[in-house]
Write a structure and sequence with these properties.
Helix content: 10-25%
CATH class of the largest domain: Alpha Beta
CATH architecture of the largest domain: 3-Layer(aba) Sandwich
Low-confidence stretches: 1-26
Radius of gyration: 24 Å
Number of domains: 3
Number of strands: 23
CATH superfamily of the largest domain: Peptidase S8/S53 domain
Mean pLDDT: 91
Strand content: 15-25%
Structural class: alpha/beta
CATH topology of the largest domain: Rossmann fold
C-alpha cells in the first residue's frame, strides 16, 4: 500500500509533469491514460472528440460471482473495493445494499474500474504516474451477486432496469439459467455482454452465456509479448487460442462475436490507491466492450433520430450489429475453418469473431443514421421487421462513386426466442432463418446484376459479409430475406432484426502482425524460424488462413517465406 505522504508526492508529480484536468473525459495532450486497452480500442479517442460522452444516464448491470460458496450458498465476497480512490465519486450501487456483509473481490473491483473508474493521481512502478479513466466514468453501475441475480431476476422474473448487462461469469454447458439470460435479451431488449472463456491454457471451451445466441460473446486480444511489462500494458497484438476460447460452439455456431484487449491496470482490491495488472483474460476484455457500448447508448438515447438503436424492441440487435460491423479485422481474419468452401455458412472468424472493438468506428456507424429499406446512404443501420412470406425481401440500395479499393461490411442480427418460464426452453416455432446478400446492380441492364457475396448460416442468428466492391459497378444492394420460412408462421408471422452496413477501405493491410509471428513487436529472424518450422517441419500444413499465410492464399508456401524475408531485411538497421 502506498502511504498517504507518497500519494501526495506522486499527485504533485502527476500534476506537474502531465497537467491532467480532473473533469471526466478531458486531459491535456500527452497525458498517460490507463487502462491503455481503452486507448487501443479507440475509446479514449472517441471521448476526446466527443467529451460529452461519459456514459451519463446509462445504467450498467454488473453481475459478479462470489468467490466462496458454503453448501451452495454464496458468501458475498463479490464486492467492489469502493474505498478505492478511483470509485470516490462514481455512481455505484449494490443490489443488496452498501451495508451488507461480505468480502471484496479483485475480479469485481477490476471490472468496476474498467467500466467507471476515475483517478487523476494513479501510479504504478511499471508506468509511473497516470490518469485512470474507465470507459464510461459517468455511467451508473448496479452490482449484483451472480446467484442472487439468477434466482431473483432470471428464475423469479423480478423486474430490473438496466441498459447494459455485463457478466464475466460462465459455464461450459448451456443450462436453464444461460437460456434465461438469453431470454432477458429477447424479451426485454437488454444489451448483454459476457466473456467467452480463457482458452486452451486453462482448458476452457467457449463459455455460456457468452456462447449464447442472443449474447455478445467477448474474446481477448493478447498483450505484446515483449520483455518489459509496461509494453504489455500499452501494446496489443492478436487473439490467441491459448487465452481466448474459440468457436465453433457444440451446436456449430460462430463465437466469439467481438474481441478486445483485456490486460489492464485496475484498482487494487486491498488498497485505497494502488493498482494491479489483470493479465490477458476475457473477463476484463468484456467490460472494455460493455463500457464503450455505454457511450453509444448515451448518444442514441440523447438523439431522437437514433432512438431505434436503443429501443426495447430490437435495439440490442441493432447495437450488436453496429459493434460487430465496425470492428477492426485483425491480420489473418477468416471465416470459419481454414478452407474456402465454408465462407458463406460459417459467418465469423472462430477466434476474432467480427474483429476487434473499434469505438470510433462504432460511433461513426451509429451516427450515420437510421435508414429504412429503399434508397439509403453507403453507411447506415436499420431496426426493422420482416414478414414471413415467400418472396419477401428488404432491399437497401446505395451508390458508391469510386468503388475501387472499397469493401462492403454488413451485419444482420436477430434474436432467438425462449419459453417464458423455467427451464426457458428454446421456442423453436418462433425462430427464423434469415440470409444476407450483397448485389452489384446495373440499373440499365438487369442481366449484368451480380451476387457478390452472401451469408447464410443454418445455425447462427448473425449473418456477416466483408466483401470487396466491384470497380465496374457503382450501384449496390444489401438484401435481407429468409433462407427458409419455418416454424409456426400463423402465431409468429414476422421477425425483427438489426442491420448495419458500411463501405470503407480494408483496415488490416498495414499491420505488423502479418509478419510478427511471435507477437513480440519486432519483425526479425525469430519470425523467420517460426515460419520455416511451419513450412518444412512438424507443423507443416497444406492449408493456411492463419499465422504464416501472409498472402492469405490458403497455403503456407515459399511466397510467404519470401515476403517475410523481405520485411526482415527492410527492418535491419
Amino acid at each position: 500500500m502506498i502511504k498517504s505522504s507518497y500519494r501526495i508526492f506522486f499527485a504533485l508529480c502527476f500534476l506537474t509533469v502531465w497537467s491532467a484536468r480532473s473533469s471526466l473525459g478531458q486531459t491535456e495532450p500527452g497525458v498517460l491514460l490507463q487502462p491503455a486497452a481503452l486507448d487501443w480500442t479507440g475509446t479514449y479517442s472517441l471521448r476526446r472528440t466527443e467529451p460529452a460522452l461519459t456514459g451519463k444516464e446509462v445504467t450498467i448491470a454488473a453481475v459478479c460471482r462470489s468467490l466462496t460458496y458454503l453448501a451452495g450458498k454464496p458468501q458475498d465476497d463479490y464486492r467492489l473495493n469502493i474505498d478505492h480512490a478511483c470509485f470516490g465519486s462514481r455512481d455505484i450501487h449494490f443490489a443488496d445494499g452498501l451495508d451488507a456483509s461480505g468480502g471484496v473481490s479483485f475480479h469485481s473491483t477490476a471490472i468496476g474500474g474498467i467500466l467507471v473508474g476515475s483517478d487523476a493521481y494513479g501510479f504504478h512502478p511499471y508506468t509511473g504516474p497516470f490518469y485512470y479513466q474507465g470507459a464510461a466514468p459517468g455511467a451508473r453501475v448496479d452490482v449484483y451477486e451472480f446467484w442472487r441475480f439468477i434466482s431473483l431476476y432470471v428464475y423469479g422474473s423480478k423486474e430490473f432496469k438496466a441498459d447494459i448487462l455485463t457478466m464475466s461469469v460462465g459455464s461450459v454447458f448451456e443450462d436453464w439459467w444461460t437460456r434465461g439470460i438469453e431470454r432477458l435479451a429477447d424479451e426485454h431488449g437488454v444489451l448483454i455482454f459476457a466473456g467467452i472463456g480463457n482458452g486452451t491454457a486453462v482448458h476452457d471451451p467457449v463459455f455460456y452465456p457468452g456462447a449464447g445466441s442472443n449474447i455478445i460473446g467477448v474474446g481477448v486480444v493478447d498483450s505484446l509479448k515483449s520483455g518489459h511489462p509496461a509494453d504489455a500494458l500499452e501494446r496489443f497484438s492478436l487473439p490467441r487460442a491459448e487465452h481466448s476460447s474459440r468457436g465453433p460452439t457444440a451446436d456449430d455456431r460462430c463465437k466469439p462475436d467481438i474481441v478486445a484487449p483485456g490486460n489492464c491496470l485496475v484498482p487494487s482490491a486491498d488498497s485505497s490507491s494502488g493498482y494491479e495488472i489483470t493479465g490477458d483474460w476475457s473477463s476484463f476484455a468484456t467490460p472494455v466492450v460493455a463500457g464503450t457500448a455505454a457511450l453509444l447508448v448515451q448518444k442514441a438515447t440523447s438523439d431522437p433520430t437514433l432512438a431505434a438503436a436503443v429501443s426495447k424492441d430490437g435495439g440490442n440487435c441493432v447495437m450488436k450489429a453496429i459493434l460487430m460491423n465496425s470492428a477492426t479485422k485483425l491480420p489473418y481474419w477468416h471465416k470459419g475453418q481454414p478452407t474456402k468452401d465454408d465462407d458463406h455458412t460459417a459467418v465469423l472468424d472462430y477466434l476474432q469473431g467480427a474483429g476487434m472493438l473499434n469505438a470510433v468506428g462504432a460511433y461513426q456507424q451509429l451516427t450515420a443514421g437510421h435508414s429504412r429499406p429503399g434508397e439509403v446512404p453507403a453507411t447506415g443501420w436499420d431496426n426493422s421487421v420482416i414478414q414471413k412470406k415467400t418472396g419477401i425481401e428488404h432491399v437497401y440500395s446505395f451508390s458508391v462513386a469510386e468503388p475501387a479499393g472499397q469493401r462492403l461490411t454488413a451485419t444482420l442480427v436477430w434474436n432467438r426466442h425462449f419459453e417464458p418460464e423455467h427451464p426457458f426452453l428454446s421456442l423453436r416455432a418462433a425462430d427464423s432463418d434469415l440470409t444476407l446478400e450483397l448485389w452489384a446492380v446495373d440499373p440499365e441492364n438487369a442481366d449484368r446484376n451480380r451476387l457478390l457475396d452472401y451469408s447464410d448460416s443454418v445455425n447462427d442468428n448473425v449473418e456477416h459479409i466483408w466483401c470487396p466492391l466491384d470497380a465496374d459497378y457503382t450501384r449496390y444492394e444489401v438484401v435481407v430475406t429468409f433462407s427458409e420460412i419455418a416454424g409456426d408462421v400463423e402465431q409468429y408471422p414476422s421477425e425483427r432484426y438489426g442491420l448495419a452496413w458500411r463501405t470503407a477501405p480494408a483496415d488490416n493491410g498495414d499491420s505488423i502482425f502479418w509478419y510478427d509471428l511471435d507477437l513480440d513487436g519486432d519483425i526479425d529472424s525469430d519470425d523467420l524460424i517460426l515460419l520455416m518450422n511451419r513450412f518444412v517441419g512438424s507443423e507443416m500444413s497444406s492449408t493456411g488462413f492463419g499465422p504464416g499465410d501472409i498472402d492469405m492464399n490458403g497455403v503456407v508456401d515459399i511466397k510467404d517465406m519470401q515476403s517475410l524475408m523481405a520485411r526482415v531485411q527492410q527492418n535491419k538497421p
